[in-house]
Amino acid sequence: MNCPHCGRDTDPLFKFCLHCGKELKKSPAAVEKKKPRKVAPAPQESAPAEETQPCPQCAIPVRVKDRFCPECGYNLKQPEPSAETPDYAKPILHNEETDRQVVGSIISVSSVDGRETVRVPLYAGENTLGRGEVDVQFAEDDRLSPLHLTVTYEDDELTLVCPGSRNGSFVRMHEPAFLAHGDQFRIGQQLLRYEDLDLLDDVTVAVEEGTQMLGSPTRSNPWGRLTQVISEEETGSSFLLSGEKVFLGRERGNITFPGDRYISGTHAVVGLKPEGTVLEDVGSSNGTYLKIKGECPLRPGQYFLAGRQLFKIDLKG
Fold first, then answer.
1. Cβ-based neighbours of 195, under 8 Å, separated by 6 or more
2. Domain with 140 in it: what CATH number?
3. CA 49/CA 38 separation, integer angstroms
4. What are φ and ψ of residue 28, in 5° steps?
5. In order along the chain (317 residues), what is the average pLDDT of each group of 10 residues?
6. Does 4 lie in the same domain as 114?
7. How far apart are CA 60 and CA 41, in angstroms?
C-alpha cells in the first residue's frame, strides 16, 4: 500500500510508515489475520539477511536501513544521547561537609531517555538550587536564576518553592488542574499560556457607520485562548478554545504540533467546566508540566523542570 502521508510504498501490516514515521490507517484486509503463504523453493545462492537492530523504544528488531520503527514510530535516525554529562548539568555542592541529615537525593535525568546524569544529597529542611551561591549550584545553566528554587523536606512531606525566578519551575501533572488567566504549561517543547477571553482587553477601532469589520471566521462561542510563549516580549501562534473539550497533540487533536517529536499523538486536553478551565494529561509519554505559583507539594519520584534540566526526588537514598 501507499502511505497516505508521504505516498511511498510501505507494508500495510505495519502500524507506522517506514519512510515518514506517521501512523498508517490500516485497510480492513490488513486487519484480518495474515494467511499462510506458500514458500517458494530457496534459490541456489540465497541473498544475505538484512542487518537488524533493536528499536530503542519498543525493542522489536528493525532493519538498520529503516528510518522509523514500523511498530511504535520511533525515529531511528535521531542522534543518540551523549554518555557525557553536559556542563550545565554538573553541579557544585556548597554543603558537602555538614551535619545535616541526608533523607534522599535530588536527581537530574536526561529528558531523552530518562538516564540519570547527576545525583546529589537531599537534606532535611531547605535545599536551595540555582546558578548562584546556593546549596546545589549549576553555574553553567544560563536558564536558572541565581536562586531558582527550594526543595523542602519537613514532617515527611516534600514542597517545591519557586521564589520568583525568571523562567519559573514546572511540575509534571498527575491529576487534572484548574487554569487561571495567565497560567503557563509545557507539552513537549511548547510553552503555552492560557488566556480567559473575558479578561483580555477589547480591541477598539473607529466604526464607520454601515460598514462591517472584516475578520477570520471563528468556531462558535470561544471561551479561551492558548498562546505560544517565545520570550518575555514575543509570542507565537494563538489558538481559540471552544466547545466542551479541546485536545492537544502531535498528530491528533483540535490543536496539533506536528514538528514536535516530544509531544504524543494525543497529549493533553483543555476543557471547560462550570467550576472553570481544566488542564489534563491524557497518558502522554513525556508528560504535561504546569508552571507553579509560589509553592506546591511534590511527590517522591515526581518530575519537575528547572532551567535546562529535568529533576526528580528519591527519598530512598
1. 181, 182, 224, 225, 226, 227
2. 2.60.200.20
3. 20
4. -55, -35
5. 77 72 61 54 63 72 78 64 74 79 93 83 96 94 97 96 95 97 97 94 70 75 95 93 96 95 96 96 96 95 95 88
6. no
7. 28
Tell me the longest C-alpha to C-alpha distance in the chain.
Answer: 88
Do the bridges between strand 255-256 and strand 245-249 make them parallel or antiparallel, or are there none, so unpaired? parallel
**Cell match 473575558: residue?**
198
Q: What stretch of H or E contains 29?
A: helix 28-31
Q: In whole angstroms, give the CA distance from residue 78 to residue 191.
A: 23
Are residue 240 and residue 160 in the same domain, yes or no?
no
Pull the grid cell for residue 45. 545462492
The total domain count for the chain is 3
Q: Nearest-5° angle of CA 89, CA 90, CA 95?
A: 120
Range of the domain at 307: 87-168+293-314
CA distance 248 to 264: 9
d(CA 110, CA 108): 7
Q: Give the per-residue pLDDT at 221.
A: 86
Backbone phi, psi, residue 285, to 5°: -70, -40
Check if the beta carbon of residue 290 is closer than 8 Å to that of residue 170. Answer: yes
Q: What is the CATH number of the domain that holds 252?
A: 2.60.200
268 with 183, same domain: the answer is: yes
DSSP conformational letter for 202: P
Same domain, 64 and 12: yes
